[in-house]
Amino acid sequence: MTPVPEQAHRPVRDTLVSEWLKTGSTRAIWFVAGGAVLIVLAVTALTVSVVAVWEGLPQERRSDVFLTPPAQIALLPLQLCVGVLGVLAFTSEYGTGMIRSTFAAVPRRGTVLAAKTLVTGSVALVIGYVGILVTFGVSWWIAGDRSLGFNTGPPADQLPMLLASGLSVVVVALVSVGLGAVLRSTTAAVVLLVLLLYVLPMSTGYLPAPWDDRVASVMLANLHYQVGMDDFAMVYFDGLLSPPAALALMATYVAVTLGAAAVVVGRRDT
């Protein structure tokens, strides 16, 4: 009787291995990794340039220099990088027709969705946290004892926000897997992702008060501020969502998109 559980788990394990191999063999993963490196380098260069400006100012004007936390500058580009990777998890196979072979090899489509989600989420976890933490650490080191706004307190004070930012990268990747599975079009899914992360949050500023802050507070792009209890969230969102509520809403975004993907993938003919 003992071999039965092993045989039952083998398709799941084989599917995971297959998805890892497919992800590692595509150019997309290397473009995403290279993009993450370029993002870190670009933000580091920005920090260096701000330090140079600070050094060139007279003493009485140096307090006017303020740099947005470098990790936050890097966050949106990192989210877009892993978002594209998440979208391609399904759309690349739909585009080439390979999805038929995938579903023929693994008839349980929910298993395929789960495997792609787990693999993409794992990659996003590494890219997100490495990118965020390296950007933060290098920029903090470059700033040194110069007061640039983002380094006024001890580094430990930034930990909740850094953890929330890295988590948001993973959340965006998982949401993107769902979007790609539902839409099957790389262009459509990426456009919708950009709308979610950039256009819609910016558009809330045109709403009348207090709806501008209320709607902005539930946008996917703004949840990590509230999870990490950032000063930005306290000022602009007035504490509308507690950290647990913002975390629950993050999970809701993931559940809704992946739930829709499970329904669509399970019912749609390839």
Automatic annotation (TrEMBL):
Transmembrane regions listed in the UniProt entry: 28-54, 74-96, 117-142, 162-183, 190-209, 245-265
Keyword Lipid biosynthesis included in the entry's annotation: no
Pfam families from the UniProt entry: ABC2_membrane_4
Transmembrane helix among keywords: yes
Keywords, alphabetical: Membrane, Transmembrane, Transmembrane helix
Protein name in UniProt: ABC transporter permease
